[in-house]
Amino acid sequence: MTSRRIPLVAGNWKMNFDHLEATYFVQQLAWKLRDARFDYKRCEVALMPSFTSLRSVQVLVESDKLRIRYGAQAVSVTSQGAFTGDVSADMIAHLGCSYVIVGHSERRKYHPEDDANIVDQVRAVLAAGMQPILCVGESYEERRKGIELDFAVGQVHDVTRDLSDEEASRLIVAYEPVWAIGTGMVATPQSAQDAAKAIRDDLTATFSTTVGDTVRILYGGSVSSKNAVELIGEPDVDGFLIGGAALKVDELTKICRLTLEATA
Ligand code: PEP
User: Fold this and answer.
1) Atom 6, ligand 1: which residue's CA is nearest?
2) Angle subtended by helix axes 148-160 and 189-206, to nearest 10
3) Which of 38, 64, 89, 142 could, after both became Cys, cross-link 124 (CB 3.0–4.6 A)?
């Protein structure tokens, strides 16, 4: 990463950790990053706990003035009413969340989340003053056919094309090839760069150079301390969305430190 975009290391905890475990993890991460004199101004760190842990994380972060940010893993497209089990963007925003993951491949697979629903989630998150982390990426099948770049670009384009420039500039995109998620198979730095660059070029063409230059594009899929430095060395890769490695506090601390050092 060679630009002036601030890198973001975001941990997606999925359905792991209850509120006590979440609180303990955040404390440990904050201690370890403090000991390492971590500069949060030059690298953002964020965690995405379950809904049930958000309030506990908020209380800890606010009372100890921690610099770690946090967000949710999904959001309802409606603002209130008879939608049993749903959580609105305003409810999430009122807990101090900065981000919401939208369109993660596990949500697309296990829930009725199609492009129309994902557009509405993005809009709901933006309207509530937070940043959506829009997940896109090809399956093994699209990669085998050699259409992975068109596929990922198309997923971003279809969901974002009707946003205003101001809204688009607040997007974060996570390029997460589905075959790399939780498998131990990581995209090569070159293929992560190719996808990030193709997505950025499309944002520039659809909106403006400012939008293209501003939007952070993360890589996700089996990121670890062993591959983070090479990936973040690519000019259009602005950080990571991390699943498995974000459940181990030493490993996550290491990835944060390596990302900061590599982008200094
Ligand atoms: C994810 O689920 O967003 C993810 C990238 O998972 P993992 O790091 O475990 O591949």
Assistant:
1) 243
2) 40
3) 89
For residue 223, the ligand 1 atom closest to its alpha carbon is 8
Helices 115-127 and 148-160 meet at what angle, rounded to 10? 50
The answer to whether the annotation marks 14 as part of a ligand binding site is yes
**Residue 71: inside a domain, yes or no?**
yes
* Mean pLDDT (whole number) for 232-249: 98
Query: 135-164 burial, b if ≥16 CB within 10 A, otherwise e?
Result: bbbbeeebbeeeebbebbbebbbebbeebe
Domain count, the chain: 1
- Note down the domain range covering 59: 8-262
Q: Ligand 1 centroid to 244 CA: how many Å?
A: 6
Asked if residue 145 belongs to a known ligand binding site, the reply is no
Model pTM score: 0.97
Per DSSP, 38 falls in state: -
**Which CATH number does the domain housing residue 151 bear?**
3.20.20.70
CA of 49 to the centre of ligand 1 (A): 14
Q: How far is the CA of 198 from the centre of ligand 1 (A)?
A: 21
**Amino acid (one-letter) located at 122:** V
Closest Cα partner for 11 from 56, 65, 73? 73
Q: Which residues line ligand 1 (CB under 6 A)?
A: 12, 176, 181-182, 220-223, 241-245
| pLDDT tens per residue, range 228-238 | 999 999 999 99
